[in-house]
Each structure stands twice: as structure tokens, then as C-alpha cells.
Amino acid sequence: xxxxxxxxKFQVLKTGQSMTLQxxxxxxxxxxxxxxxxxxxxxxxxxxxxxxxTTDKGEVPNGYNVSRLNKREFSLRLExxxxxxxSVYFCASNTIRQEPAFFGQGTRLTVV
Amino acid sequence: GQQLNQSPQSMxxxxxxxxxxxxxxxxxxxxxxxYKQDPGEGPVLLIAxxxxxxxxxxGRLTAQFGITRKDSFLNISASIPSDVGIYFCAGRPTGxxxxxxxxxxxxxxx
Lengths: 112, 110
Description:
The structure holds two protein chains of two kinds. Chain A is mostly beta strands.
């Protein structure tokens, strides 16, 4: 039972570099989410996807793009990384348009 | 975004004691959620609440959806060492977006 799998687990980027964070779930869920978690703050929604082929902005979408490649995969792209994007990124999923119930282990990203 | 105030920020308790924490918002929410997060892991959904006044249990955990719809409460009875972690509340006003509190860090002293 893999659940929600995120890759990579750790990443260091230089300012201006780009990268894609990968997320895949094997539970046949429709809804998928990307959150960021910063010290002293709650999780904040970056983007979500209610179903394959649809994506919507969350609370903090600036500087990010997403792709819902198929039902299993939802990727988050940083086109030009900035130090303010240093954070822990979590992907989550659920069956329908409800609460984010299943989280991955996170990607710890540092932008220097 | 929505502001969720979660209190207390941290708690240090003896094993076997009961724990209470709460979450308040400035606006009405339609759904309240409670999560636990262990170090280096993603949050785990503990309890979901969908109606004002609703009281729901999950083992030794009990959560309530406040009747004003602006608050929620989580109680843990007879704490044990594995209860250690950070507990987050989250709420949804309308639409699909959930807003998270800043967490309550729980330490259980054996």
C-alpha cells in the first residue's frame, strides 16, 4: 500500500533554477492537492485538482504551476525558484471534492 | 486568507492526563477537521466534523463542532507517549478550500 508518494524527499536549488515536484497516488482518488508548510504557520493550499484535467488556484499560487497528468499524478512546478519558496511541500488526495485526507511524506525544498 | 487561532500553542502533560485544545475562526465554517503530524511525516486525518454541534470520537480522541460554527474542540483522554506530535485543526468556510491552524505541539511526559 503505497498511498501518496512524493519525489524527491529533499532538494536544494539555486535561485532562478526550475524543478518539478512529483506526486502520485494509487488509491484511485479524484481530488489532489498541493500544500506548503512553513515554520509557525499552518499548511497553505497552493493548487488543487478536483478531477483529471482540472486545476484551481488555492491561497498561495504565485510562482507555481501544476499539471494533472492523469488520475494518478499531480505535479508542481517552480519555474524560477526564489528563497521565499523554501518550504516543506505536501501532496494530498481524497476520493471526491472533500477534505484532503491522505498526505504524502513531503518534499523538503531549500532555495539558496 | 482565513485566520484560524489554535490554542494552546504547546502543552506538556503527564502520561495518563486528559488533553483539551481548541480552534477558533473569525467566520463561519461548514466543515472542521483535526489532524496529527509526527516529525518528518505528513499530517494524518483524525476526525472530520460536518454539522454544528456534532460530537465525533475516534478511540480516545473526541472532537466537537462548535454550535456557533466558529470553533471546534479536540479532547484526548488518558494520554500515552505515542500521542506526542503536532495537532492541527482545519476548516472550510464555503467552496473547496480548507484553512489550517498553526498547530498545538503536545509533549507527553512518561
